What we know:
By secondary structure, the chain is an alpha/beta fold. 29% of the residues lie in helices and 17% in strands. The strands form 8 sheets. It has a 7-stranded mixed β-sheet with strand order 5-4-19-18-17-6-7, covered by helices on one side. Strands 24-28-25-27-26-29 form a 6-stranded mixed beta barrel. A 4-stranded parallel β-sheet has the order 11-10-9-13, covered by helices on one side. The two termini are 50 Å apart.
Amino acid sequence: MNRDSGAFSNAGPDAAALRNCKASPVGGGIELRKTICAICNPLSHCGIDAYVRDGVVIKVEGSDNPHNGGTLCAKGAASRQYIYHKDRLRTPLLRTGEKGSGEFWPISWEEALDIAAQRLNSIKEESGAESVAFFAGYPKWMRPFLKRLAHSFGSPNYCTESSTCSTAAFLAAKLNYGCFGRPDLGNAKCLLVWSANPFYSNTSMVRRLLDARDRGLKIIEVGPLVTPLTRHADVHLRIRPGTSGALALGMANVIIEEELYDRDFVENWTLGFDDFKKYAGNFSLERTEAITGVPAHLTRQAARLYAKTRPAALQTSASPTVHHTNGVQNHRALTALIGLTGNFDVRGGNYVRPPAYLYVPGPPSTREHEYEQSRPWSEMAPRMGVERFPVWSRVIAEAQAMHLPFQIQTETPYPIRSVVGFGLNHRMWPGCDFMYESLKKLDFFLQVELFMTDTCKAADLILPACTSFERSELKFYPEKFVIWTTPVIEPLGDSRPDATIIFDLARRIAPEDALLTRGYEANVDWILEPTGLTVEKLKQHPGGLSLKDIPQVPFRKYEKSGFPTPSGKMEFASTVLREFGLDPLPAYKEPELGPVGRPELLKDFPLILTTGARLPMFVHSRTFRLPWTNGLRPEPMLDINPEDAANRDIAQGDTVRLSTPRNSIEVKANITQIVSRGVINIYHGYRDPEINTLFEPDYLDPISGFPGFKSLLCKVEKSI
């Protein structure tokens, strides 16, 4: 079978074999091979049963991996279309035309790697290693190796897609607690779900969530949109976008006034409670309702339910609460509810477990973070953006990528002349057109990608990566399960695993790093050393290995060692923020371009735009190109409330013009009660029109640098 022509259909001569291959996995030339789907985030990678014949994946199913238990979402089910898509890059490409022209010439790997090394080493010699930025996008599996490469090369400017994803929420939690605790869903009696939609973004969690609901779990849902979770919630608090902080402070005020807080925890383990109590007292139920739009009786009901139903856990998503110009303080306010009610690091609350590997909580613990920081910050130039986002630079061990286009353009305090990008997508930046033009200004842009994307067209050199089906990868799961995957097929064309590319580059641009020069498996073994595992041992368990003998991490670890904050306590008033002259309390501010922040704009821009929520078949831009997933919603649409649509004579499917103070686009209207009156929603990731051109490049949270994607004034008009 040709790798491209026969990969998408179960019809023809394979049909009978495919119907029987689950019951008889080896036969008729078909082999069952175990791997994982790595399309989405590392907390949700599902086990895959791949059926292979003649070196071609002809069918995929969910495997018996304990994380997904045989299930697959729409993205994973479309894996064959992902693997064999016509846009897959098959060979290294060197630019021959103008940047942006898309004119490239195929070259060999040796030639490509030599060109990359020569350009990067020359820039380092001429203007310093800091003039080269290294960027890791999706998937995330190569990040520890790329960060080590950046630092061993001498550059402090390693940055990631997490500069607009989960890191601001992590930053807020670290300011409060010094660490981050995930919900212990199996033991919780109440779950406060704040702007998260696991039905669309974390499908492997949904079964456990619904099982817990059947056992009596109480659910409080907070967010501006109606989601599939809403029908399962005991209380739904439908907020105005960007007002999470005010709602959290209103809930805190109820909990404190009614003395429902954990007095022992507050008195013995917190800093700044009296100031927090006084500040939260400003958020009466009446004022909170005026700000957020949530009826006062529902806020009181939710506060009482969360505080009284113990243990209770807080579940947030990666970015919705922090994609605002007031995002960090919003998130600090809502995570403060955990400590206020004594639900931090307890069974059934927000349980702190040290990371095992790639964001997945342990045990066991690996040497990932020790591995990736191969050179201390003191031996490198200051990171880009350190003066603009000093709190980020103090707390987060990478550069803030949102500052990248500004430093490329201004060359201040030093030039960024080159970017080494792995899965870099310029459309994730606000003012993404500004980012694209910045990439074109670089002396040398190296892009590693699966597909020929629009971002690739700005590159000087493109290197073809391969999917998780074509490489080996270390993967831990929170269920105390680990797998070292074996490639189920050979890489398509001349594509290579990202790790192979990184280690090949390392031999040319960081030869003094003896560990990097030893290659992929030796580096993974070094990371795994504390666990007693090795790559060779994991290879003996191709379907994965259960780690049943690992003891559980204890609860209330702070009672023994304190909190990893400057004060050793949970900080209602942040020591770090005070040090930088910022409000130490989780003070509420209105979104910068919101109806209260800029009332003079309301006449021309009377609606609030929120963007970036997910649909279940899409993640970022990767699966929009697949027929199965794209066919579920082939066109981007603007969600508008029926009342707002009627006031503008807009009917379902009409083409409308969506405008912000920066730009305007045309898109079709979807009339729905999913959004409340006055709110416009657009789901993320569509290529055309470019939603992020509606945002100014500097529409950022001043603490985290995160874009305000979820609260911006706009208007909608019917196109003529």
